[in-house]
């Protein structure tokens, strides 16, 4: 398979049944997004992505669980409760597309839809041992998603993408979901793995807030790299010193977006909102109608991610430096191997202590680069591990090609049973 092309089969009602995460609107299905203030709300029309999939023969089965307003890397809310990981019920399936990740990882469906603004496709894909692709920013329409903003930056950072057990499904799904933008990705053109250059970074570099990368993940990455080396591909360290400021860059850019939807706003009157600090106090006694994760996200917005706004200029300049650097070495035939998350799936409620781990995924939302999580087996405790494969904008096909080759070499999804 190493030198075979990646091709898209003819798109003509070839899809079967597709569970879709709740945040992508579907006709007459739940649209509460895990919030008590929206309990009972139903979608009145399909989101754009659902419409594309229906037209291709997809049959949405259900809406899967998410955290409230999709604002957590765990999947728990006050309506439907907590989603468990199929590999170990004591650990989280991740978030925000954790319900989808758990269903697919458990073998309950072939593939589904997730959204990703800071890793919410890729982290659940890793924690549940499946594939998840974050497309190039702006390629897949986010119309119909909730939360939603018309801000241009929001529509680039937030992406909707496929989650599945088998890498061969990714190109078809990305092609369909991209709608009129599909031609920009050139997924129907022949591409050979031997023509791709592979760069790698084992970690983001030292940072006081960093979560160290586990050895099992580094070992898995090196096995993948050695596979390509043994087949005569170019494999080299990424010519970049570190990504240690990824978290700060991501938070600053995210909170520059005006009018980010938050849980405190009244659904019927968005000009009114509940007191954040009153709700935090009530939450300590289990009396708030809002989840703690949703309230914590509001705290991050109010505090600019605990970053002084005087640093915003520095982080904006750093982002553009990173963009230029990445584009110069990735070009149109390079990918980078990088941890999806520095550690394996967390125990329930541990995400707040390990929040800095999101620096590994969020930076590529801000850059607008495509990235695919690729499962690479399990660790010694039977928990899924893997890495993400990153490419320059509109080079999604490179990520998907490498994902297919790694699946062939290492087995891809491993059932939890």
Automatic annotation (TrEMBL):
Domain Amidase: 29-400
Keyword Transport carried by entry: no
Coiled-coil portions: none
One Pfam family named in its UniProt record: Amidase
Keywords: Hydrolase
Gene3D superfamilies the UniProt entry points to: Amidase signature (AS) domain
InterPro entries recorded: Amidase_CS (IPR020556), Amidase_dom (IPR023631), AS_sf (IPR036928), FAAH2 (IPR052739)
One Gene Ontology CC term in the entry: endomembrane system
GO MF, any single term: hydrolase activity
Source species, domain of life: Eukaryota
Family: Belongs to the amidase family.
UniProt name for this protein: Fatty-acid amide hydrolase 2
UniProt organism field: Pseudolycoriella hygida
């Amino acid at each position: 398979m190493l030198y075979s092309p990646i091709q898209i089969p003819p798109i003509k009602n070839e899809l079967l049944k597709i569970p879709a995460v709740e945040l992508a609107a579907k006709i007459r299905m739940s649209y509460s997004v895990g919030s008590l203030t929206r309990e009972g709300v139903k979608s009145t029309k399909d989101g754009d992505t659902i419409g594309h999939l229906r037209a291709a023969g997809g049959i949405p089965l259900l809406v899967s669980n998410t955290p409230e307003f999709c604002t957590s890397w765990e999947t728990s809310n006050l309506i439907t409760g907590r989603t468990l990981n199929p590999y170990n019920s004591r650990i989280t399936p991740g978030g925000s597309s954790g319900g989808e990740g758990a269903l697919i990882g458990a073998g309950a469906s072939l593939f589904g839809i997730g959204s990703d603004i800071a890793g919410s496709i890729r982290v659940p894909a890793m924690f549940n041992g499946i594939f998840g692709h974050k497309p190039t920013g702006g390629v897949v329409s986010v119309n119909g998603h909730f939360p939603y903003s018309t801000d241009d930056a929001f529509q680039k950072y937030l992406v909707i993408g496929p989650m599945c057990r088998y890498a061969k499904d990714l190109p078809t799904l990305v092609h369909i979901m991209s709608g009129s933008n599909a031609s920009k990705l050139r997924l129907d053109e022949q591409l050979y793995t031997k023509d791709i250059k592979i760069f790698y970074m084992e970690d983001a570099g030292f940072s006081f807030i960093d979560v160290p990368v586990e050895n099992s993940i580094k070992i898995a990455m090196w096995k993948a790299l050695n596979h390509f080396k043994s087949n005569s591909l170019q494999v080299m360290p990424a010519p970049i010193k570190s990504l240690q400021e990824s978290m700060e860059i991501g938070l600053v850019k995210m909170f520059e977006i005006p009018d980010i939807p938050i849980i405190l706003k009244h659904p019927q009157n968005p000009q009114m909102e509940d007191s954040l600090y009153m709700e935090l106090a009530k939450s300590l006694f289990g009396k708030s109608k809002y989840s703690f994760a949703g309230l914590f996200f509001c705290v991050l917005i109010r505090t600019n991610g605990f970053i002084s706004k005087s640093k915003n200029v520095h982080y904006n300049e750093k982002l553009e430096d990173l963009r230029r650097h990445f584009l110069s070495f990735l070009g149109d035939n390079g990918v980078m191997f990088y941890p999806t998350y520095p550690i394996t799936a967390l125990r329930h409620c541990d995400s707040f202590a390990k929040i800095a781990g999101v620096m590994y995924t969020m930076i590529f939302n801000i850059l607008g680069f495509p990235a695919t999580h690729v499962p690479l087996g399990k660790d010694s405790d039977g928990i899924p591990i893997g890495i993400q494969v990153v490419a320059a904008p509109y080079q999604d096909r490179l990520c998907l090609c490498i994902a297919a080759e790694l699946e062939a070499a290492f087995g891809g999804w491993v059932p939890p049973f």
